[in-house]
User: Which sequence fits this backbone?
């Protein structure tokens, strides 16, 4: 019985890695849709969100099966509980990448009113956070998980820069206001992706240590 349980724990680990890779791909396609006015990339990013949703359901089913098979020891219980929390954040990242792609579809054939430098930097930073948070889980690397949490400040600072640039633009020329607001929304979605990657890293630390960073900060 325990051997079967261990095999399914390994399967759970592999499925989390697979879902993480899908999420990374979705983010990359979304930013390509924004930067390159790529309608196909936008559509693919939106479609892959369905695959991410399906993968979340598969992992959730496996986690519940593991919990019902036998009473897991504390370490295994933390692993399974963390996995259930992580897939929720990964699913939301997929949603936000799809939302970015939906906005990008309205920009096809239209010139941007500001230079797209900071938004791609935000995208790159959030992809790094998502990748590192999943890697931290797979390798049980608490230091890598902490570095993801710390790196969220980089994304927050980039968002502030985008917001300030766009506000300045609107003040100079209100005619570009609608597109400027859309660009702020895209930046906001990337900021939220960074927040979800931080959540994943915090659950990684919980899986390893039994302590949740967010709870400690609220004490």
Assistant:
């Amino acid at each position: 019985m325990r051997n079967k349980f261990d095999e399914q724990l390994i399967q759970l680990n592999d499925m989390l890695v697979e879902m993480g890779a899908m999420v990374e791909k979705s983010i990359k396609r979304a930013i390509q849709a924004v930067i390159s006015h790529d309608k196909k990339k936008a559509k693919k990013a939106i479609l892959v969100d369905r695959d991410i949703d399906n993968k979340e359901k598969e992992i959730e089913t496996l986690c519940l099966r593991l919990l019902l098979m036998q009473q897991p020891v504390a370490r295994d219980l933390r692993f399974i509980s963390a996995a259930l929390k992580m897939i929720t954040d990964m699913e939301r990242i997929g949603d936000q990448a799809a939302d970015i792609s939906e906005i990008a579809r309205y920009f096809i054939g239209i010139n941007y009113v500001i230079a797209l430098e900071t938004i791609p930097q935000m995208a790159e930073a959030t992809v790094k956070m998502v990748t590192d948070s999943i890697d931290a889980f797979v390798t049980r690397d608490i230091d890598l998980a902490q570095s993801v949490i710390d790196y969220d400040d980089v994304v927050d600072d980039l968002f502030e820069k985008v917001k300030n640039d766009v506000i300045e633009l609107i003040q100079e020329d209100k005619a570009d206001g609608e597109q400027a607001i859309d660009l702020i929304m895209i930046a906001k979605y990337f900021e939220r992706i960074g927040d979800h990657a931080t959540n994943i890293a915090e659950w990684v630390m919980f899986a390893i240590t039994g302590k949740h960073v967010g709870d400690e900060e609220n004490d």
Notes: The domain at 2-218 is CATH 1.20.58.220 (Methane Monooxygenase Hydroxylase; Chain G, domain 1). Helices lie at 2-36, 39-69, 74-105, 118-139, 142-172, 177-209, 213-218.
